[in-house]
Amino acid sequence: MGKTLFDKIWDQHVVTQIEEGPSILYIDRQFIHEVTSPQAFTGIKNRKIDIFRPDQITATADHNIPTINQHLPIKEELSRIQVETLQKNCEKHNITHYGVGHESNGIVHIIGPEMGYTLPGMTIVCGDSHTSTHGAFGTVAFGVGTSEIEMVFASQCVLQPKPKKMRININGELEKGVSSKDVILYVLSKLSSSGGTGYFIEFAGTTIEKLTMEARMTICNMSIELGARGGLIAPDQITFNYIKGRKFAPQGKDFDKTIAKWKALKTDVDAVFDAEFTYNANDIAPMITYGTNPGMGMSVTDSIPDLSEVNESAKASFLKSLDYMGFKPGEKLKGKQTNYIFVGSCTNGRIEDLRAVAKIVKGRKKASNIKMYIVPGSKAVERQAVEEGLDKIFKEADIQFRQPGCSSCLAMNEDKIPNGEYCVSTSNRNFEGRQGPGSKTILASPLTAAATAIAGTLADPRDYL
Predict the structure, then answer these.
(1) CATH topology for 287-463?
(2) Between the CA of residue 366 and those of 251, 370, 425, 437, 449, what are the distances in Å?
(3) pLDDT digit string (tens) for 292-312?
């Protein structure tokens, strides 16, 4: 029997298989940031041991950093302490660190790929659930807890049970105005936020094969929202073209030799998955969420499900979610006023996302009720946006273009959405209070966010293209 792509990578990295237990899995690269690493550093200090392979660890500050006036000291005390502690720990242990203001600083899951740290066939961990982003390159990448960060610090290995395998196929052509964010929100609406629990997902099909690397990263980023351990996509020529020439990728003849190995990283024809689903790209429209988990999604032109359409076991949580959001069963949301819009995060903070927004807002002004800011995912994205003149397009549309960071994806920094306000967000989670106490998040693509900015109400991007 053949092997899946996931099997091939996983099996190559098993150091020891514990009988009737987890695998001891070798980790090629660990990414760390300021929020989940301090306790792990304290743990190895208390054990009086050194970090085993510091050259295989990459650090950046992203969650707690401000996105304006980054040259000034961080105002929030806890955030400042965490950022400073990361810097001190990295200096002590000779770990490469991209701190605030560094030309390569940015969100951990954006700088890894853009600098060439993320390569096909690797195992990657980080103390952050959206480590699954790196799976777009054909890697087994997943989030870990603080104790596991410490485990990798000490041994470059982690104890991990092997997940089941799922394949999700998307075939066909995407309609104009429909992006990879809509694809994954559509899948979530079909399978729910727990539909992938216990699995590692491979995304495949003709639609996936045509996507850019940045679009693939968006899909793998949100595989975790299905409850999965992670998601991955087989590397191909699009992958190789993206990697070529990046700072930490193989160079010259070494790159050519490595590609030959990478081409073997694909699922065998006779491989068997534990679960498999297939969807038609033609059925996917611009998507929005209406509830408090990413699986509660629908087309921007649809209505929230009526109570009669909801399973009996889910009715209580469905009604609780709508009560928090201030929505009703059967309600249409297109045309509903929302005052805040956030474009950014490790889901949609890349240059293609910013270009998508610029495509709609160019030559237009945002509605007067809208407060919108665009946060690039890294300094490199910020520089490229300026080089392409996107910052000027945003300024002319009266949209604020900020400095890199996780920003309003989560309420760990100064960029919080006020209590009771709706925010159309290109981030990954719409949990209660995720963007600030009492905030109400509607997840959408950059195109839908841009259209909403112009309309002042929830809008269909197809009306603006």
Answers:
(1) Aconitase; domain 3 (3.30.499)
(2) 44, 7, 16, 26, 11
(3) 999 999 999 999 999 999 999
